Amino acid sequence: MHKICTDIVIETPINEVWDLLTDFDKFETWNPFITKIKGKLELGSKLDVHLRPPGTKGIDMTPVITKLESGNEFRWIGNLWVKGIFDGEHAFRLEELENGRTRLIQCERFKGILAPLILYIVGEKTRAGFEKMNTSLKNECEKRHRQGFTQCAPLA
Description:
The protein is an alpha+beta fold and about 160 residues long. The protein has helices at about 15-20, 25-30, 115-145; strands at about 1-10, 35-40, 50, 60, 65-70, 75-80, 85-95, 100-110.
């Protein structure tokens, strides 16, 4: 099994980070890596997701939410083409830190027959996409928090 993990500390309370991270309708306004998510944030829900690692045209996937702990974590499992070829379990986990800060941990575990080959080709671009998303989430939440919003809900 292969894994890519990144993390970042956000100077914003956990509930505000969760609010923005789970507002799928607004992803295209701030997220350079996951530019679209359509679907409900519910356990077992199927999502329509467009991922765009840097330097690629991107890919459409239809993962299913497999874990949901409101305010802390959600995961999905998706596959490329057919299950067992290239499967990924993507996780977003938030940890509450002292002084109103939050750590975002974004990981994906890959498995399947073509996982080593595909990750050899796009693994570094995928990691760069995670990091760009993390930084964009941090910047957007911190900006909104400084502006006095009590929630990190999208600006009108």
